[in-house]
Recover the amino acids of this structure.
């Protein structure tokens, strides 16, 4: 449903606009309490804010760990799907979160890919047909001086033709 709607909206809006507002109005993402604050035109950078509120405070008054995790969960996968295009299959494969200290203020996360990383992914997939990519992000305070949590995401990326033939076996 989301992909179909996105394809229709691409006729009228930039990918970065669809990414930002699509996430922010999506019920699936709104429940995480995260909000996309910025998406670069090339989709290589996405900035998320996880505001502390009554919706996500836990028993001791810090942001509930599930909100911290769920606000970060889908971003890298959707980012790569849109950057790499239709010739690739991209799935979240594994995630780990290490809580460092309670988040008594809003959390901030930057999801960044470089052009070199994207070129490396394409080259590796061309040779290996499928790869696992591990990305690390930190959920921090506004100044990035306090780290609330570290998230490690393993993302599966494959050549679409290879993936389809592999599934037939």
């Amino acid at each position: 449903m989301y992909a179909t709607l996105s394809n229709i909206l691409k006729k009228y809006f930039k990918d970065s606009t669809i990414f930002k507002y699509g996430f922010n109005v999506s019920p699936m993402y709104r429940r995480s309490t995260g909000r996309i604050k910025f998406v670069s035109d090339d989709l290589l950078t996405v900035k998320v804010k996880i505001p502390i509120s009554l919706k996500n405070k836990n028993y001791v008054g810090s942001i509930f760990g599930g909100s911290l995790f769920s606000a970060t969960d889908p971003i890298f996968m959707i980012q790569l799907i849109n950057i790499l295009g239709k010739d690739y299959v991209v799935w979240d494969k594994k995630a780990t979160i290490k809580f460092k200290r309670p988040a008594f203020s809003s959390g901030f996360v930057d999801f960044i890919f470089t052009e070199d990383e994207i070129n490396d992914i394409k080259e590796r997939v061309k040779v290996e047909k499928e790869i696992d990519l591990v990305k690390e992000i930190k959920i921090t305070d506004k100044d990035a001086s306090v780290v609330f949590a570290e998230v490690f995401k393993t993302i599966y990326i494959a050549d679409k033709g290879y993936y389809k033939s592999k599934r037939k076996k």
Notes: Residues 84 and 119 are 10 Å apart (CA to CA). The longest strand covers residues 147-159. Helices lie at 2-9, 15-25, 27-30, 65-72, 75-84, 115-128, 160-168. The mean pLDDT is 95.
